[in-house]
Amino acid sequence: DLHWRWTQSPEERLLAQAYDDPVPAAPAAPSAEAPKESIATSTPVAPAAPASTPPAAGMPEKHTTERAASVPASIPEPHAARTAEWPGFRGPERDSVIRGVRIETDWSKSPPMELWRQPIGPGWSSIAVDGDLLYTQEQRGNEEIVACYRVSTGEPVWRHADPVRFYESNGGAGPRGTPTIDKDRVYSMGATGVLNALDAKTGKKLWSHDTATELSREVPFWGISSSPLVVDDVVIVSVGGTLAGYDASTGKQRWVGPLHGGSYSSPQLVTIDGVTQVVILSSPGAVSVNPADGKLLWDYKWEGGAIIQPAMTPDGDILINAMSAMGGMGTRRLSIKHDANGWTPEERWTTNGLKPYFNDYVIHKGHAYGFDNNILACIDLADGKRKWKGGRYGNGQMILLADQDVLIVTSEEGELALVSATTDAYKELAKIPLFDAKTWNHPVVVGNVLLVRNGEEMAAFRLAADAPPPTDAAKDER
Asked: Which of 188, 224, 202 is nearest to 133 (CA)?
C-alpha cells in the first residue's frame, strides 16, 4: 500500500479520531512493589485516546497510563457450558470448513447486506466469535490490543492493552495471531510473544507470559504469528516454531517441545491411528508432539519456511507445504505409519500444482482448493495433479461452505468473491468490493453473518439464505 509521506497513515487517523473522545483521569501509578503484570491494562471502553502521539517508524515508547470508561450494558454471560461458534483461528477444526450453512449465490438478486463497518488498528489477526461477542487483535500506537466487540453492532465492549509494538516493513505494524476462546476465557499471542489469558466477559487479565524471553527464542523477522491451541487443560503455542504448553487455569509452564525455529504456523490438533497429537510446520518440515507433555512423536524433514497449517485428508494422511521468501514451492502428501517401533512418515507424492505461500487451503471431496501463489487452483488428493487454475485474487484467504460446494474468497485487494468448489473448471459465481486496502486476514462466517477485516477496517455482512435443496419426496411430487 502506498501513501504520500506527508499524509497520516490509517493508524494515525484512527488515533487522531480517538482524541475527540473524553479521556478519564488515569488512576494512581502502581507502587514500586507492584507485580510485573501491572504494566498491562484491561478496561471496558468506548474508543479512547492514547496517552501519547503515535510512534515514528514503529519504535516502541514507554507505557505510562491506564484508561477506564463505563461498561456497556447487557454484556452476555460467558458460555462456559458450550463451545463457541467460531472459537479461533480458521474455526473449530482450524480447517476453514463450515457445515450446515447455505447462502444465496446470486448476488445480483440478493447481495450481502452491510450491517456495520468501523475503523480498526493494524494487524493480521482474524476473528473469534462466541454469541454476540467477537474477539480480535490490533495495534493502537504503542499498545498491542486484544479487543472485544459486539457482533450485532460492532460497538467495543473491552480492550486489553500491552505496552508492545511490533513492526516490519512488509506486513507493517501489529499482532499476527488470532485469539482463542475456551469456556469463559480468551487466550491471545502477540507478535513479540506475549501470551495472555483473559476473562472473556470483562477482559481482565488472569495470567500472562513473555514467551520469547522465557524460552530464549528470537522473534522471527515477520513476527510471532501463532494462534493459541487449547487441548484439554493445556494452552499450546508456537514461539517461532518451538512448541510450549501452559496450564490453562494457572498459566504455569507445563512443557517445552523440541527446539525448532523458522515457523509462522500455528499448532494443529490431529488424530492419527487413534492417537491425539499436535503438529506444527517449522524449518525442518513437520513436527508432531504429545499435547500432554510435549514429547516428540515424529518429525519429517522438508526444508522451506512454514506459514500455513498442515491439513488432514479424510483417510488420515497429512498435507504439508514448502515455501521460500519469494513464494510457494509445492505441496507434499505424507502417510504416517504407526507400529510397535513408533511413527514413520513417508512421502506419497509431491506436486507443484498447488504452491501455497501464506494462504491456507481447504480439503473437500477428495480435492484441495487453495492459492497456487496468487492464483486459485484445485488438485486431486489421489495423485496431486492439478484439475484447474484460475482467478487472480493476490495473496487472499478463503473458507469453504461444504454443504454447498462454494468457496468464500477475500482477495488481497479487498474484494469478496464466491467461487465454485467443484473439479471441472474454475468458476467465479459473484464478486463485490469490501475494502480499499491490503487484506490478508482470514474471513469468518457464523450463521448468516460474514465478518471480515484487514489492517484498517472491520465489517459485518448479512448473507441471504439459500433455499434448501428439495427432498426426495418433493422431487417425487414434482
From this structure: 202
Please report where in the chains the cell 473448471 appears, as a residue.
425
- Closest C-alpha among 208, 190, 210, 191 to residue 199: 208
Closest CA to 167 of 158, 159, 175: 175
Q: 217 Cβ partners below 8 Å, 6+ apart?
A: 193, 211, 239, 240, 242, 261
Q: Which of 215-229, 322-336, 434-448, 453-467 has the lowest mean pLDDT?
A: 322-336
**Residue in this structure with the C-alpha cell 522451506, named with its chain if needed:** 304
In angstroms, the CA 186 to CA 202 distance is: 10
Give 394-431 as a DSSP string: -S-EEEEETTTTEEEEE-TTSEEEEEE--SS---EEEE
Q: Of the segments 63-72, 145-154, 320-329, which one has the largest average pLDDT value? A: 145-154
Give the burial class of 61: count Cβ atoms within 10 A of its Cβ; 0-12 exposed, 13-18 middle, 19 or more buried. middle
Task: List, for residues 350-362, the tens digit of each pLDDT value.
Answer: 999 999 998 999 9
User: Which helix (H) or strand (E) covers residue 211, if one does?
Assistant: helix 211-214
Type of residue at 397: Q
Report phi then psi at 262, rounded to 5: 70, 40
Cell matching residue 4: 504520500
CA distance 267 to 229: 6
Nearest alpha carbon to residue 41 among 167, 188, 203:
203
Q: Cβ–Cβ contacts within 10 Å for residue 290, how many?
A: 17
**In the predicted structure, residue 398 carries a pLDDT above the cut 50:** yes
**Do residues 231 and 243 touch, judged by C-beta distance below 8 A?**
no
3-class secondary-structure state, position 36: helix
Element (H, E) at 363: strand 362-364
Cβ atoms within 10 Å, residue 280: 27
Cα–Cα distance, 146 to 135 (Å, whole number): 7
State the pTM of this model: 0.86
Please name which of 142, 167, 169 lies closest in space to residue 63, comparing C-alpha atoms: 142
Q: What phi-psi label fits residue 416: left (phi over 0), alpha (psi between -120 and 50 degrees) or beta? A: beta
Residue 11 host element (H or E):
helix 10-18
Nearest to 260 by CA among 209, 210, 226, 311: 226
Q: Are 101 and 448 in contact (CB under 8 A)?
A: yes
In degrees, rounded to 5, the angle at the alpha carbon of residue 15 between the alpha carbons of residues 54 and 17 is 145
C-alpha to C-alpha distance for 391 and 126, rounded to whole angstroms: 23
